[in-house]
Write a structure and sequence with these properties.
It contains 3 helices and 7 strands; from the N terminus they run αββααβββββ. By secondary structure, the chain is an alpha+beta fold. The N and C termini lie far apart (69 Å).
Length: 133
């Protein structure tokens, strides 16, 4: 009977914890520059917004201009190894991806958005730079 009580306790405790949710990932061909987001992300998105590690629902709402449940859809709010790229079309999220901070660290654009026309990037030394190519 003690084993049954222990099993019930373990199941009860694990049900109280939250699971880590991971957004889809986006893998770029880093050998080819510039990295043009239009070549990797389908749809008629207007802009891409960047949310860095430990961003939460409030940060997403503030940046996007509308409420969006970042914490229930991604791991960026508890994961310092990724930057979240949110592709927006007409004031709503079209798609979103977690991108590893290595070898390109898009976190330098955290809490900002870039228009589709300016969404090409190159790396200069250790910095990621936006380009108009």
């Amino acid at each position: 009977m003690n084993y049954l009580n222990l099993l019930v306790l373990i199941l009860g405790l694990s049900a109280c914890s939250y699971g880590e949710v991971e957004a889809p990932s986006l893998n770029f061909d880093y050998a080819k520059e510039p990295i043009k987001f239009v070549e990797y992300v389908d749809g008629n998105w207007d802009k891409v917004c960047f949310l860095g590690p430990y961003s939460n629902n409030e940060a997403a709402s503030e940046l996007l201009g509308f409420e969006w449940p970042l914490e229930s859809l991604t791991s960026v709010w508890i994961n310092d190894g990724v930057t979240l790229l949110v592709f927006v079309e007409n004031g709503s999220v079209l798609s979103y991806y977690e991108v590893s901070r290595a070898p390109y660290d898009f976190n330098v654009f955290s809490n900002s958005c870039v228009s589709r026309a300016l969404s090409s990037f190159i790396k200069s030394g250790s910095k990621v730079l936006k380009t108009q190519v």
